[in-house]
Design brief:
The structure holds three protein chains of three kinds. Chain B is built from twelve helices and 14 strands. Chain B is α/β, with parallel strands linked by helices. A seven-stranded mixed beta sheet of chain B has the order 7-6-8-9-10-13-14, sandwiched between helices. In chain B, helix 3 packs parallel to helix 4 and helix 11 crosses helix 12. By secondary structure, chain C is mostly helical. Classes of the chains: A mainly alpha, B alpha/beta, C mainly alpha. Chains in contact: A-B, A-C, B-C.
Chain lengths: 329, 375, 290
């Protein structure tokens, strides 16, 4: 596969294609691709935590939602510019990521999965019920589009190129992380947390960092989404959404950047293309998740060992060891 | 290697497919109406009611010669009441040049999500049921043909306080965009009329159907009437649960409760249920009788208020088309100019904000049937 | 009002308990969470009601048949999903059952429509005073049937050969295999029992609230899982106690705090338990930190 990417010509063609896309594609296709881009970022962010670090997380849409609401509320209530809202949204989501990471760092696998699911639901219910802050189920309409020096940037060209820039930044950041000491520590944690600890790696610290960074990216995606769609409401950040993002990670392959991009693209573009069959869409998502697990658990581009090995290692022993295994000190 | 190449190719194929869809300018010989509504998912029954009614309207129009000889078609987009879907559909419809106007969405949140796109592309969006107060502020292409809760709420309130002489009223409402607005307006209406609201309880649609905790809490406060801000299914369930615990309190609600389903699901529990409504199949006006008759013939059941709203929406657009609207902009203008349209949901005129005020009547369930309320 | 809320909570809690037992059994034997268990509950409700409304069966026969049908569904899920993935990493069956749950919910919506269905009053509702509150006949029915089912389960687990085999497998799968226990049969039986109970809970809920719909399994499953965690993940009596406690807590919370935040209570309890005492009521205690 790397052959393709090493082929400079093909790479160049793809790159040119991406740059020129807005001029060839109609508004509708452009919109679909922009939305796909948002999901690419979300998938990458979840993959960092679930794929690379081996922390199975089920409530990911919560960070997406926190980012979206932070940015939207800042823009609507405090009239803050999108350019400030975007990073603040990311930071806010990261803070929540840390808040989730700290108490749960001792939990493994299923306990972690369920706790994160619970966290996701709590955030959604808060967004829904705390109407004084979030307007609850009425949602937040009229989120201002980004502007620069007073000129509104409310057109698809801006959104597309900016999304492209964001995606590139996230991909580059992920590659830097994975190739660094942090990344190696995360891989070690994924493969065998016990061994990593005994090698002196501060697993707690690194896991929290993974959550924070992943949440940060998810928050950024949320902010972009809020300003692009100009309307958000709590139901967009539900467990279904988390499931969809997880499906993208699973399909593309855990611990694989290319996989995440591909997974996100396929699961955004395909349902649109098959809009006539949209009543089967969720069924297909579910079937894909099942099929991937049954046939090829590492997904399309995941490495066979990485991403699944470590998580699988701690097999639950149902006897007295159940809880012992569940909670690692 | 081969596998991944073919994957890449598949991806490009999909993109090609999509760009094909997006850019397809349908032959200008066709005229279509767009419908964006939940056809699947939690609110599918309402989306399907819309579709049924609109198809009925289109059938009639085509039988009468179409629009200047051209047959009218319906393009349906399933929004699943999801704002993200609604936005995608909006973009798709905007790019389809055969679509002259769009009816939808069912929920306010989905309608809201589509509005900026419709407005930006100069395509009329007429929602039959979006009752959020800010909806039509989205722009001059955004219309609705339902009274908002700002109109209906006080009427229900006065029905309870003035007509039925209730003093202490409790409220249960569904915590979604519609329910919150309905609740707010009803509560204010009651207070303005001099009544007292003793308790307000919310429930979430996915919370499951157990209202026992809420009902027990409300019963403790001794109200003499219970207002239900919800749709007919939940209304029937709540009514049943009150009777099951021997809590035989008088019930009242809005037009959202009006449906044969309420009677079917609720059985004896909904006897005496009061409600307002803007559409009543028993209405003797010829257009209503014609609609009810044809709806029954085609779909073997009575139309609900939701179907009636969509029917009127479609017919108003058809009227604008027949009056010579040649493109999306002129359609908007002709639609906005409609006054005193004889709709099945009442005589309708759009005001300067593209809202309408409908006559609202009061009903009560007597002997298992809806009857007009008489003082 | 307090007593009334507690009674209501116990009725609801019994349902959580029945579904939670299924989680506990499956977790005890396989160490895995069955994300589609909520859908078995949902299917149970649909089966039961189809039997009552279409075939005009009485409540009890419909319940029994629904239980059997759910048990069969459970075995099918085990064969199709869990068995092939026995050697796979733990994520696999979790993600797979998550996918299955989505598929089942949506297929049900397609087939039956997503609106709430109802069957005209099958259990006549009368209400019996009980101190300062009252119990409805449907509540009594729920308590009674749940109790009977749980007793039957206890009997099977503790007085039958199958039960012994299940408990042995739960304790130590390998040792049990060495002792000649047919692990495959045990696992299938466990799923059958757990799913049967889940299906029964579905029918009971449908009868009690007179409402059932394709997405009813999601929340119920989640809450039942919280109940199981509360009880100690692997313990059947724990799941029962956890279910009852959760039901009561939710009703009290709805009554005294806020009805809107009611679902929140379940999740907050979940997180608190996992953080403070992950072994719940009756789970094994932490053994040795590593």
């Amino acid at each position: 596969m790397n052959d393709i990417f090493k082929n400079k010509y093909l790479l160049g063609v793809m790159f040119a294609g991406l740059l020129l896309l807005p001029f060839i594609a109609g508004d509708y296709l452009l919109r679909v691709i922009i939305v796909a881009g948002i999901y690419v970022i979300l998938t990458l962010s979840l993959n960092l935590v679930t794929g690379y670090t081996g922390q199975f997380c089920l409530g990911w849409a919560a960070f997406y939602g926190i980012g979206a609401y932070t940015s939207a509320l800042l823009a609507i209530n405090l009239k803050l510019s999108f350019w400030i809202g975007l990073p603040v949204a990311g930071i806010m989501a990261a803070l929540f990521g840390i808040a989730l990471g700290i108490p749960t760092m001792r939990l493994k696998d299923i306990y972690l999965a369920i706790t994160t699911l619970g966290f996701g639901e709590i955030i959604r219910l808060l967004l829904l019920n705390w109407s004084d802050l979030t307007r609850g189920s009425m949602g937040l309409p009229g989120i201002p589009a980004p502007s620069i020096f007073g000129i509104s940037l409310d057109n698809n060209y801006f959104y597309y190129y900016f999304m492209l820039v964001l995606v590139c930044i996230v991909i580059l950041a992920m590659e830097r992380i994975i190739d660094s000491r942090l990344g190696r520590a995360l891989s070690a944690i994924r493969e065998d947390e016990l061994a990593a600890k005994s090698m002196g790696i501060n697993t707690t610290r690194y896991k929290i960092i993974a959550f924070a960074v992943g949440a940060f990216f998810a928050g950024i995606a949320g902010s972009f989404h809020a300003h692009y769609s100009s309307f958000i409401d709590p139901q967009s950040f539900s467990f279904s959404e988390s499931t969809i993002i997880l499906a993208m990670v699973v399909l593309g392959g855990m611990a694989s950047i290319k996989g995440s991009v591909l997974g996100a693209l396929i699961l955004t573009l395909l349902p649109e293309a098959l809009r006539d069959f949209s009543e089967y869409r969720m069924i297909v998502f579910g079937l894909i998740m099942m099929a991937v697990m049954l046939i090829r658990p590492q997904g399309i581009w995941g490495q066979s060992k990485a991403g699944t090995a470590g998580i699988g290692k701690i097999r639950f022993k149902a006897k007295g060891g159940a809880v012992k295994d569940a909670v690692r000190g | 290697m081969k596998k991944k190449m073919s994957l890449l190719l598949t991806l490009m194929l999909i993109m090609g497919l999509l760009s094909g869809c997006g850019n397809s300018s349908s032959q200008s010989k066709e005229i279509s109406l767009g419908l964006t509504a939940p056809m699947t998912g939690d609110y599918a029954e309402y989306g399907n009611a819309f579709k049924n009614a609109i198809e009925l309207a289109i059938e009639k129009a085509n039988a009468e010669g179409g629009i200047n000889g051209k047959k009218l078609k319906l393009v349906v987009g399933d929004s699943k009441a999801d704002p993200k879907e609604a936005a995608n559909i909006a973009q798709k419809f905007a790019a389809d040049s055969s679509i002259q106007a769009v009816i939808g969405d069912f929920t306010s949140t989905a309608a809201f999500a589509g509005s900026p796109i419709y407005q930006k592309n100069g395509l009329v969006q007429l929602s039959p049921t979006s009752s959020h107060p800010d909806f039509t502020k989205g722009g001059n292409f955004i219309f609705r043909n339902i009274s908002t809760q700002a109109d209906e709420g006080p009427i229900v309130a006065k029905y309870a306080v003035n007509d039925l002489h209730k003093k202490k009223i409790a409220v249960i409402y569904i915590n979604n965009d519609w329910g919150v607005v309905a609740k707010d307006n009803f509560v204010k209406g009651v207070q303005d009329a001099g009544g007292e609201i003793v308790d307000v309880e919310a429930y979430l649609p996915e919370q499951g159907k157990d209202f026992s905790a809420i009902l027990t809490k409300i019963r403790d406060k001794n109200p003499d009437m219970l207002y239900l801000g919800c749709m007919y299914t939940d209304g029937a369930l709540i009514a049943q649960q009150t009777r099951k615990i021997n809590f035989n309190i008088d019930l009242i609600g809005t037009a959202s409760l009006y449906s044969d389903e309420l009677l079917k699901l609720g059985g004896s529990a909904v006897e005496g249920f009061h409600m307002t409504c803007s559409f009543f199949p028993g209405d003797q006006r010829p257009e209503v009788q014609d609609f009810v008759k044809r709806y029954n013939e085609k779909y073997s059941k009575n139309p609900t208020m939701f179907a009636a709203q969509a029917y009127d929406a479609a017919n108003m657009i058809i009227k604008a088309l027949k009056e010579g609207a040649t493109d999306r902009k002129s359609l908007r203008d002709k639609l906005a100019a409609i006054k005193d349209f004889p709709g099945v949901t009442g005589v309708t005129s759009f005001d300067e904000n593209r809202n309408v005020k409908k006559e609202i009547s009061k009903l009560v369930v007597k002997d298992g049937k809806y009857t007009p309320f008489t003082n | 009002m307090l007593l009334q809320q507690i009674i209501n909570g116990l009725a609801q809690g019994s349902i959580y308990a029945l579904v939670g037992i299924g989680f506990a059994l499956i977790f005890g034997v396989l160490g895995l969470v069955h994300f589609a268990h909520g859908e078995v509950y949902m299917l149970g409700a649909f089966f039961g009601f189809a039997l009552i409304s279409v075939f005009h069966l009485g409540v009890v026969p419909a319940l029994l048949i629904a239980i059997i049908a759910s048990a069969i569904v459970g075995i099918l899920v085990e064969r199709l999903v869990f068995k092939p993935l026995r050697k796979a990493p733990d994520v696999a069956p979790m993600v797979c059952t998550l996918g299955l749950s989505v598929v089942l919910q949506n297929v049900a919506m397609l087939v039956w429509g997503s609106d709430t269905k109802s069957v005209p009053d099958v259990i006549s509702g009368t209400v019996i005073p009980f101190f300062s509150a009252h119990i409805s006949t449907s509540q009594i029915l729920i308590f009674a049937i749940s109790l009977v089912l749980m007793l039957i389960l206890q009997y099977i687990l503790y007085r039958s050969k199958l039960g012994r085999a299940i408990r042995a497998t739960a304790q130590n799968k390998d040792a049990a295999a060495l002792m000649g226990v047919n692990i495959n049969k045990v696992i299938s039986a466990t799923f059958a029992l757990g799913s049967g109970l889940g299906g029964a809970a579905g029918v009971l809920v449908g009868l009690y609230y007179n409402a059932f719909y394709p997405t009813m399994g999601f929340m119920a499953g989640l809450k039942a899982f919280v109940a199981t965690v509360l009880g100690g993940l692997t313990s059947v009596p724990g799941a029962v106690l956890g279910g009852l406690v959760l039901g009561v807590a939710e009703n009290l919370g709805a009554a005294y705090i806020s009805s809107g935040y009611r679902d929140l209570i379940a999740f907050v309890i979940l997180i608190l338990v996992l953080l403070i005492k992950p072994s719940g009521f009756f789970g094994r205690s932490l053994q040795g930190k590593v």
